[in-house]
């Protein structure tokens, strides 16, 4: 059994994990950089350890310091949250070597899914539908031949990719050479690895992802989908569950394909299988072997605490539910609240002078922010997530409109006004949007 969890993260997700541990009667250790000494996750944890100066590479990514913090505090498990070390196979290996439980999948599974080419091959072999594309790495010399086979437009993607970096579209043969070389140099700069591959570029897909959880012994379930099509620069902004585009049969069919794949893989922990969805077809793009930012909307419609499940399966206690017991109820939407200018998206760190979180039935705010909190400039600008649940999508939207009016964050700029615009938009009301909708909408608003 796990008795003390060290949370190797910061911000809202550190708080999220801490809450689950407290509910399970597990002691918590927070780690923090010198910039985060007064953060909420540090205040609420049973113990805390300063692991270094502000830059992430010296603190939240510093494996030696984190392992030392486990040794000092006697933590027997680590929850990595998302980002930072959550998909670092070496970190999982090192914890293993120290007899510390990594609350996540095996290092091998992290490795397989971390390399996009291997991930796609594995997905295909497990029966998951994938985007047509190159069988492996694409080099400048074979790019044209492969692109002609796939058919233009094509997308060049970084093998080590993440966060939408190192991705370039080639509309026609004329663009190909440049797309390959820029994708390669961007990939090298971002990931230290210039390997790229090629996929058919889908014109107007939705981004739909399936939440899975496995016990590592061959049992796995799916918890339905999330529609994360509303994106800016490949970053999700607004997510919903269920997807306005799927019906029950489609949900259960793709969900079962994913759960079955995870059973075959003997996957352990929570994971998300991401697809592009166009004309009724699903195309696998990647699998994230960790908890996702947008996991609370799945929790809202299923009533299942995903962090509880992660901790259960990591400690060998198995899943708390079977597939038959899962009931999807109502509709949930998450808005990501960033400390950014809502028009230019320029980060806006600083001190929060007033903070009032909304409440009421079906409302959840996951945030480490509070009145007087100083947002440090060193990290991601996500300062909170607003999750609203209703019995129907219409009720959920009506509730969200009310809740957005109640939310007060003063002293810094936030993306709250963007959501106030979106909630009044007809396409959003109709659920009629694809992965390009938000960029087009923002470009139009900027021109007005
Ligand atoms: P990353 O790991 O860098 O986030 P993904 O493979 O998850 O990369 O893709 C991120 C986003 O890029 C997707 O949500 C989608 O918007 C877009 N995208 C990825 N692959 C394709 C494709 N084949 N066609 C069109 N858009 C794509």
Describe it for me?
It is a single chain. The protein is an alpha+beta fold. Helix content is 35%, strand content 26%. The chain has an 8-stranded antiparallel sheet, sandwiched between helices. Strands 3-2-1-4-5 form a 5-stranded parallel sheet. Strands 7-6-8 form a 3-stranded antiparallel sheet, covered by helices on one side. Strand 4, helix 4 and strand 5 form a beta-alpha-beta unit. Helix 4 runs antiparallel to helix 5 and helix 7 packs across helix 8. The model has no long low-confidence stretch (mean pLDDT 97). The structure holds adenosine-5'-diphosphate (ADP).
Write the layout of secondary structure elements.
Layout: E1 4-7, H1 11-23, E2 27-33, H2 40-44, E3 47-52, H3 63-73, E4 77-79, H4 89-97, E5 101-102, H5 107-114, H6 116-125, H7 143-150, E6 154-158, E7 168-170, H8 173-191, E8 196-200, E9 206-215, E10 220-232, E11 235-241, H9 248-265, E12 268-278, E13 281-288, H10 295-302, H11 306-314, E14 331-338, E15 350-351, E16 354-356, E17 363-367, E18 374-375, E19 382-390, H12 393-406, E20 408-410, H13 416-422, H14 426-430, H15 437-447
Parallel strand pairs: 1-2, 1-4, 2-3, 4-5
Antiparallel strand pairs: 6-7, 6-8, 9-10, 9-12, 10-11, 11-14, 12-13, 14-19, 15-18, 16-20, 17-19
Helix pairs in contact: 4-5, 7-8
The structure holds adenosine-5'-diphosphate.
In short:
This protein has 448 residues and is α+β, with helices and mostly antiparallel strands. The chain has 15 helices and 20 strands.
């Amino acid at each position: 059994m796990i008795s003390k969890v060290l949370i190797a993260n910061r911000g809202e997700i550190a708080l999220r994990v801490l809450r689950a541990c407290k509910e399970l009667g597990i002691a918590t250790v927070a780690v923090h950089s010198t910039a985060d000494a007064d953060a909420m996750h540090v205040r609420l944890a049973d113990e805390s350890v300063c692991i270094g100066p502000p830059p992430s590479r010296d603190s939240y990514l510093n494996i030696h310091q984190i392992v030392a913090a486990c040794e000092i505090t006697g933590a027997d498990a680590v929850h990595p949250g998302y980002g930072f070390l959550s998909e670092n196979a070496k970190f999982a290996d090192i914890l293993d070597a120290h007899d510390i439980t990594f609350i996540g999948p095996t290092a091998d599974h992290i490795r397989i899914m971390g390399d996009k080419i291997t991930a796609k091959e594995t997905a295909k072999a497990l029966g998951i539908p994938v985007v047509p594309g190159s069988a492996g790495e694409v080099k400048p010399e074979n790019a044209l031949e492969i692109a002609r086979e796939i058919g233009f437009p094509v997308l060049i993607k970084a093998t080590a990719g993440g966060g939408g970096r190192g991705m370039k579209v080639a509309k026609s043969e004329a663009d190909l050479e440049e797309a390959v070389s820029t994708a390669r140099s961007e990939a090298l700069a971002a990931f230290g690895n210039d390997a790229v591959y090629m996929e058919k570029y889908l014109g107007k897909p939705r981004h739909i992802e399936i939440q899975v959880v496995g016990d590592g012994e061959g049992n796995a379930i799916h918890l339905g989908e999330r529609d994360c099509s509303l994106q800016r620069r490949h970053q999700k902004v607004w997510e919903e569950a269920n997807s306005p585009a799927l019906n029950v049969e489609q949900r259960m069919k793709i969900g079962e394909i994913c759960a079955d794949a995870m059973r075959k893989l003997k996957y352990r922990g929570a994971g998300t299988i991401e697809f592009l969805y166009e004309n009724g077809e699903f195309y696998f793009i990647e699998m994230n072997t960790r908890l996702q930012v947008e996991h609370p909307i799945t929790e809202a419609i299923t009533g299942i605490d995903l962090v509880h499940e992660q901790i259960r399966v990591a400690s060998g206690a198995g899943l708390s539910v079977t597939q038959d017991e899962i009931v999807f109820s109502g509709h949930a939407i998450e808005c990501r609240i960033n400390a950014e200018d809502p028009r230019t998206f320029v980060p806006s760190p600083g001190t929060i002078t007033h903070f009032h979180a909304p409440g009421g039935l079906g409302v959840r705010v996951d945030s480490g922010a509070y009145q007087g909190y100083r947002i440090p400039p060193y990290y991601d600008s996500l300062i909170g997530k607003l999750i609203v649940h209703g019995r129907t999508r219409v009720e959920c939207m009506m509730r969200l409109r009310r809740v957005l009016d109640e939310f007060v964050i003063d002293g810094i700029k936030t993306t709250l006004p963007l959501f106030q615009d979106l909630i009044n938009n007809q396409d959003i009301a109709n659920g009629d949007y694809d992965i390009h909708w938000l960029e087009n909408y923002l470009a139009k608003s900027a021109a007005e």
